[in-house]
Amino acid sequence: MKVLIDYTVFDIQTHGGISRCFSELYSHMPPNVSATIGVLETNNVYLQNLGFHRKGYLYRHFLTQTNFLGKRALFKFSYNAAHGNYKTFDRWPSVNRDYCIQLLKEKACDVFHPSFYTKYFLKYLERTPFVLTVHDMIPELFPQYFPRNDYQIEMKKLLIPQAAHIVAVSERTKQDIIDLMKVPADKITVVYHGTDESAYIPRTKMPFPYILYVGDRNLYKNFGLFFRECVPVLLAHQELRVVCTGMPFSPEEQYMFRICGMSNRFVHRWVLTDQILLDLYHNALVFVYPSAYEGFGIPILEAYKAGCPVMLNRASCFPEIAGDAAIYFHMDERGSDFAEKFEELCRLTDTERTALINRQKERLKRFSWQHAAAQLAQVYQKVTQ
Fold first, then answer.
1. Single pTM value for the model
2. What is the pairing mode between strands 331-332 and 335-336?
3. Strand runs (DSSP E) across the chain, as ranges?
4. Which domains can be identified in the chain, with CATH numbers?
5. What digits encode the pLDDT tens for the residues 326-385?
6. Cα-based angle 213, 218, 224 (whole degrees, multiple of 5)
């Protein structure tokens, strides 16, 4: 069975959850699935690690590997003309898009799997079924944060009814699709994310104790509420800081820290490698996930792998993913018991803390990319029957 995974998310992301998910599924496919990612060249780090060419590869090898006057213009003209893009002679070619279209025209797959919400492929499918992965329904559930004509919302409305089957990344996401899109339950299969199963060996340490916050801090992520609840915790624990990954603090965040006297208590760290990220988890007193909603929550698995205690907002899919392998708190605009639950964590004995870490390790065994790829292969098989 031949499956084509399209280029879209790999052109959008150099790294990130969705592109990592698809690259892991691709690399763990069972022998009965011959999978192709429709990418000829890319800046995506996960595909580069799998041996895909860096972006610009075709240009560098066009006619000669050396530059010469007019090479860029000649490359664009010849490539666009060869792919029938007569209106875009002056634009850099859409190499990966053209490649996917070419493969669809050649009927090079039994199943097509777009990696994100896009519609370019619909007119080339003919009778080839496509499987759509829905990672979350955040724009639909939090419309106050998104424009009415949000691209994701519009594309889901178009694609979900036409898909041969839907893949959801959690039971929570599946139920949201059923409720919001009126999709029959038997048209949706839950395929959980996995985790990298390579051994983790700690390398670096931090010079102070800290709470770890990972990822974006905007909108439904509840970072503002998290900050509010952290202030009394930090006042009670003068040696404690909060380390945040993601983008550097915005001027608004810096102002919020400053007026509360917390400027030196919130620390930003860039994460350039998996090793750096896992070391941040490993050395943290606790990883806190205050988000109001996530489709799955990959940072939970990352923290489990690094042996870091996890505190989760009791919301969304978090109890589904973490089970009894976390400490839960409540956090929304009406109030929170985060500070109380944090003190409970601090009072854990060494034995109790070790028991929590051991529960997390056991829970982690449920999430495997190999198992996820096998489940996805079954979906592919189903839609071709």
1. 0.92
2. antiparallel
3. 2-5, 34-37, 111-113, 131-134, 165-168, 188-190, 210-213, 241-244, 266-268, 286-289, 310-313, 327-329, 331-332, 335-336
4. 2-194+368-384 (3.40.50.2000), 210-364 (3.40.50.2000)
5. 999 999 999 999 999 999 999 999 999 999 999 999 999 999 999 999 999 999 999 999
6. 70
